[in-house]
Structures are given as C-alpha cells and as structure tokens.
Automatic annotation (TrEMBL):
Listed GO biological process terms: amino acid metabolic process
InterPro entries on file: Aminoacid_DH-like_N_sf, Glu/Leu/Phe/Val/Trp_DH, Glu/Leu/Phe/Val/Trp_DH_C, Glu/Leu/Phe/Val/Trp_DH_dimer, Glu/Leu/Phe/Val_DH_AS, Glu/Phe/Leu/Val/Trp_DH_bac/arc, NAD(P)-bd_dom_sf
Keyword field: NAD, Nucleotide-binding, Oxidoreductase
GO MF annotation list: nucleotide binding; oxidoreductase activity, acting on the CH-NH2 group of donors, NAD or NADP as acceptor
Gene3D superfamilies from the UniProt entry: Leucine Dehydrogenase, chain A, domain 1 (3.40.50.10860), NAD(P)-binding Rossmann-like Domain (3.40.50.720)
Protein name according to UniProt: Valine dehydrogenase (NAD+)
Active site per the UniProt annotation: 89 (proton donor/acceptor)
Pfam families with a match to the protein in the record: ELFV_dehydrog (PF00208), ELFV_dehydrog_N (PF02812)
Domain Glutamate/phenylalanine/leucine/valine/L-tryptophan dehydrogenase C-terminal: 153-362
Amino acid sequence: MSEHATRGSGAGAVFSRHTGHEQVVFCHDEPSGLRAIIAIYSTALGPALGGTRFYPYADEDDAIDDVLALSKGMAYKNALAGLDLGGGKAVIIGDPAVHKTEALLRAYGRFVASLGGRYYTACDVGTYVPDMDVIARECRWTTGRSVEAGGAGDSSVLTAYGVYQGMRASAQHLWGGPSLSGRRVGVAGVGKVGRHLVGLLLDDGAEVVVTDVSEQAVDRITAEYPAVDVVDDNDTLVRSDLDIYSPCALGGVLDGETAAALRARLVCGAANNQLADHAVGKQLAEHGVLYAPDYLVNAGGVIQVEDEIHGFSFERAKAKAARIFDTTLDVYRIAAEENLLPVDAADRIAERRMASVGRLRGILLP
C-alpha cells in the first residue's frame, strides 16, 4: 500500500473543515488504482457503520464533501433507528463499470480492516452484494454479504420497506389514515430501492408515476409493473399533480427552485441528503409541504445490515424496520410540541440519544 494517511481530531491532526468528524482516512493503492476516503463521524454509540459508494467524482474535493456529509448522516440515522452504532461512510473514486476489479476491492478491504473494527462497511451506490463478498475476503468488518456467504443479502429490500412505513406514517399525520390507496406517488429513481418501493406502493393501492435517467431501469420497471406511468425527467415529475414525491436516487435533489415548483403535499424518499441546504426544509414547510427526514425513513437498509452482525434473521430485521412508522410519528409529534421543522426534530432526537446513551460508554466495565 503506497499511502494510508489519517486526518483525525487528535493532536497533530491537519484538517481545516472543522466538521466534527473523529477521523478521515485517505486510502491509495496505485497498482490496483484504488483511491478511497473513509470518514468516521462518531463512535459514541458503537462502531461506525455506513456503506461504500463507488462513484466517478469530478475531483477529490467533491468526494470529500460527499463522504463527510454522508458519514454524518449515518451517525444520525443509526442513532434515530435505535442502533448501538456510530456513523461512517466511504467513497471509492472512479467509474465502477470501468475501474472495479477484485484487486481494487480487496485493497480497499485491507484499508477498512486496518481500522480494527472502528468502521463496518456495506453496500451503497455503485457497490453490490458480490462486491461485499470480495471485500470480506480481506476484512471481517463487512456487512451486506450474500446469503450464501452467511450474510443478509440485498439491503434495498428493507430500505424500501422502511420508506414505505415512513410514508404510511406521514399519510396518517397529513390525511388521518396510513393507507396510500388512491394517492398519486412520484418515484424519482427506480434502481435498487425504488423498484422495491414501487411494488409496495402498488400493493397498497397507490397510483405510481416514475422517472429515471437510466432507460434500462425504466424498461425493467414497466415490464414488471405495467400499471406505472412514466415521465421523461425529474423536473417533469416535480411539476406533476402528485400527492407524494419520493426521491430515490442521489441526494441534493431538493433545492430552492425545486421546492417552489413542487406540487406534492409530502416528500418521502430513499435518497440520502435530499435537501440542498437547511433553508429548503423551511421553504417546503412554508409552502405546506411535509418533509419526512430522509435519514429517518431510509434506515431499513442499515437496520438489515446491522442485524447481520448478530447472525441475520430477515423477520427480526423486518420487525425492527417496521418501527420506522412509530418513530416517524414521534418526530412529527415532537416537531409540533417544540415548534420545529421535522428535520430539526429528528436531529434533536438523534443528538439526545448520542449524548445520553453514548455517555454510558464512559462507565468502565471490569
């Protein structure tokens, strides 16, 4: 390995962003072409858990911005989901269709293993269950492995299920009942998670309209579910006559312009970091749009891979993911009681748990 630079919060650390992260690790293995960054935001509640994103970032600064935001989001997501886990994330810089090889994945696995269990990795955009099996050949702190390898398999199943539960709770909060029957739901992104979500929505009687930048993904969803409608792009979907807008692709999709154009009453989707900035959340509320915090409702996947650490049971993990319904209602209740936006209420619940439960790790055991 030609480089293993760690920038952390301890003495001698050199990192100018002051993001509150415990540790940021830059990983470089020139022979395999690996360029990766692992960010650990917090281990207050336990080892940091978060997926590995394989993406062709424009430059290293873009990759750093993404991994810092994603790892912080994972700390809050894991805390809000009631898991005894901290938050982390990793990004591999490159086009997975071009640069992904066994050697690169195994080199990455060795860097993860060098952290000694401070960080557990899993799937994310650009990485899949077979990739986790390869990484696990070098690193035992790997989740989201195949069923054949003793893992939980595809975590997108319970990610979609958790979003569905959050959507049902949001419908109860808005319209007085959890059924989505007759509601028109726009799903932006019908890849790993969006495809499963579409099936759940149709089974509940919702009308579904979809869009995706991938024609292949659209063709696959229309072949599987002929009842769905399709629009050309996300801008068209946002301006459509919807009850619910569900972003299920990459983050940052909700900016000021999108919020102003949105006609739906509810935003509830699987994408991470959907708000371009905090002001957009306030703008949505002022326009009468309820925003279900993304890291609250999309926690089903991390619940699934966390369960794998203990010996996976799908039914047990699904039961945990079903609790997203109640947690979503709790967030809305606290938001109303404390005059907060739902995203701020969710942050407050997560921060209180990290502070109160995390403090207990300071009580030494024999």
